[in-house]
Design a protein that fits this description.
The chain is an alpha+beta fold. The protein has 17 helices and 7 strands.
Length: 347
């Protein structure tokens, strides 16, 4: 049985990257600290553990104890892709949160929302669902800050929670929390959540449109169905290798452990899909090499080490096999155009 690996949409990844860039942190440096390849920003989705690495790196490099809060408070519809349009056309904030529960996977598998309804007030609870790596507390703070920000732009006016609480300890000065939530914030509590008045949750939204909401939901349902189709092991290995190579992970035994398989079972599963691990590794190395050489930001010897080559001569031979030309020629062609160089095999 194939397993769906928890993942997150690139729209949410870009929210983190943009928040870091607003603080002057270059995305290349951020990705490098997180141990992720530069080309991973081209993927439609990321594994949950990779975005956790990104959050950790962003908080560390910026040194901002309110990084998660600042990232969450600036989100807009783009951070939620098609789900944002569904929420905008919802009838009430409570209805919007209910739809968010339904289509949450299109944004991220990293958490779920729940409404604990009371007579006059209701808790909007966020349950993080991390991967192998423990979530950064900044991730959780960003989600609750984003919920308040979303409530603002979907309702057309500021929405002030009655209470806010987190399961983790306080990260920064209380005035930072007050600036985002404008209410009491408690830490080291039983769950993460916002307490909202029912009058706020059930007030009609200005852009409510049942017909438009239906169209967006049909589109989102199709995306959700496509996302729910299990990937083969080879596709998952390809995605994993995009970041693993930069972390020095290239051995088949290491890859097998990553997917919870013995080395023999790992090879057998890939063979059943018509591929070999060595071919996937070679393809991933080629893609990373072509991007890195074309980018021109690092010497070839550094790129060679990133790819696991002990000698520059071995890297040069591999690059000629991949592209038909030397790294220098590939880079020169890339600098003359707008994208990666064209193959040189027919020169």
């Amino acid at each position: 049985m194939l397993i769906l690996e928890p993942s997150v949409a690139m729209s949410w990844v870009n929210t983190v990257v943009a928040a870091a860039e607003r603080q002057g942190l270059a995305r290349g440096r951020l990705l490098a600290r997180a141990g992720l390849a530069s080309g991973c920003l081209d993927a439609p989705r990321w594994p949950i553990d990779d975005i956790t690495r990104l959050w950790r790196a962003a908080a560390e490099l910026t040194g901002d104890p309110a990084f998660g809060l600042n990232a969450g408070r600036t989100v807009g519809p783009g951070s939620f892709n098609v789900v944002g349009f569904i929420l905008l056309s919802s009838s009430t904030l409570r209805n919007a949160i209910g739809l968010l529960q339904q289509y949450q996977r299109l944004i991220s598998d990293g958490g779920r929302f729940q409404i604990l309804a009371g007579e006059h007030q209701s808790w909007v609870v966020y349950h993080p669902q991390q991967g192998e790596l423990a979530f950064s507390a900044h991730q959780v703070e960003a989600v609750l800050a984003a919920t308040v920000s979303f409530s603002h732009w979907v309702s057309g006016h500021a929405v002030q929670p009655l209470r806010v609480q987190f399961t983790h300890r306080q990260l920064g000065p209380l005035p930072g929390y007050a600036a985002v939530f404008e209410t009491e914030v408690e830490f080291e509590q039983a769950f993460n959540g916002l307490l909202l008045a029912n009058a706020v949750l059930d007030a009609p939204l200005p852009q409510a449109d049942a017909a438009l909401s239906g169209l967006h939901r049909a589109h989102a349902s199709a995306q959700l169905a496509a996302l729910s189709v299990p990937q083969g092991l080879s596709s998952r290995v390809e995605q994993w290798l995009a970041g693993a190579i930069d972390r020095g992970v290239t051995e088949r035994a290491q890859a097998a452990r990553q997917f919870g398989l013995t080395e023999r079972a790992f090879s057998r599963r890939l063979t059943a899909e018509g591929v070999h691990y060595s071919d996937l590794l070679d393809s991933a190395r080629r893609a990373l090499a072509c991007r890195a050489v074309a980018d021109g930001a690092q010497p070839f010897v550094v790129i060679a080490r990133r790819l696991g080559f002990s000698e520059a001569s071995a890297f040069n031979r591999a690059f000629r096999r991949w592209t038909g030309c030397a790294p220098g020629d590939w880079q020169a062609r890339a600098m003359q155009g707008s994208g990666d160089a064209a193959p040189c095999a027919n020169d």
